[in-house]
Amino acid sequence: MSNENQFNEKESLALIAQMINKAKESCHHTGVSTIMWGIVITVCSLVRFAEIHFNYWLPFDIYYTTFIAVIPQIYFSIKEKRERKVKTWEDSFIDYTWLGFGISIFLLILITNIMGHSLQPVIEKYETLTASASPFRFYEYVAPLFLMLYGLPTFITGAGTKFRPMVIGGIFCWLASVITIYTPGKIDLLVTALAAILAWLIPGIILERDYRIAKKKLEEENV
Amino acid sequence: MFKDLDPILHSQLRLAVMSLLISVKEAEFTFLKEKTKATAGNLSVQIQKLKEAGYIDVTKQFKDNYPQTICKITNTGINAFEKYVENLKSYLG
Questions:
Q1: Most CB atoms closer than 10 Å: which of A18, A71, A202, B92?
Q2: Chain B within 8 Å of A6 (Cβ-Cβ)?
Q3: A45 and A190 in contact (C-beta within 8 Å)?
Q4: Contact A207, A48 (CB under 8 A)
């Protein structure tokens, strides 16, 4: 392209539109992190379901893998940031949304654990006094809280980037949040696994596919 | 009534750079070069002109031991670009 200024007004507008479209087309993100979290949450939920169903418990808490998954997440984030030649306004907004989500999830784990431990003696005392199982099981109500929170950044990301699979995934998380209020804890785990597949795993696969197609197209254009 | 078009923006390469930068928060020099298909030398000259006009901010830094140039549109640049598009409309209207 030259810096020639002998071009008419129509060509000028066409150039503006062409460049704006080129900039938009360049803003594809990898789906690697999304796929990873989709797999981690699905596997954790299904393993915990299997533990309850078969009454066979692993020597460690499967949910600790979510903390371990933070390590590759940091690596993916740094790698993507380094490879990114362009940063959009949406990028910053979405990055902060997911950072806020991460902090909120950490706090929710902390709060529910403290509440669970505080309520346990009361439940045990009730069961001793009445010689029957407590009608209130705190952990039955934990899944709806997590699912409600899963829905928020997923929906915002989907709506903000006009990416329908994540909008659907986010809405499903909220729907699942309501469903799990009424379902037993074991079923909550299956619903959570399904929510993770719909909110993250499938959208992540679509994102990654689109990213690879866009990257290939760009490489072909620059040959 | 026809209005004069900003001579800084009424140049193919400078307008292309501004159109790319108005769509994003910031972009690397290599990205602008890739999209405009301009030569590095020509692009550098035009970026310098846009910088001197106060339309863009240019930050130079190092990434993996290689120099990296990041361009970002300024508020003055956004206003000038919007005015340019408005003036174009008066020609085409």
A1: A202
A2: no
A3: yes
A4: no
The Cα–Cα gap between A218 and B39 comes to 18
pLDDT in tens, B53-91: 999 999 998 877 788 899 999 999 999 999 999 888 887
Tokens of A152: 């928020």
SS3 B71: strand
Q: Which amino acid is at A120?
A: Q
Say what the pTM is.
Answer: 0.82
Residue-wise pLDDT for A130-161, tens only, equals 888 887 778 888 999 999 999 999 999 999 98
Looking at the complex, does the CB of residue A89 fall below 8 Å from at least one CB of chain B?
Answer: yes
Q: Are B27 and A10 inside 8 Å of each other by CB?
A: no
CA dihedral A44, A49, A50, A55 (to 10 degrees): 120
Nearest to residue A33, comparing CAs of A201, A169, A210, A209? Answer: A201
Q: How far is CA A168 from CA A63, A105, A160, B6, in A?
A: 25, 21, 13, 46
**b/e map of A14-33 (b: 16 or more CB within 10 Å)?**
ebbeebeebbeebbbbbbbb
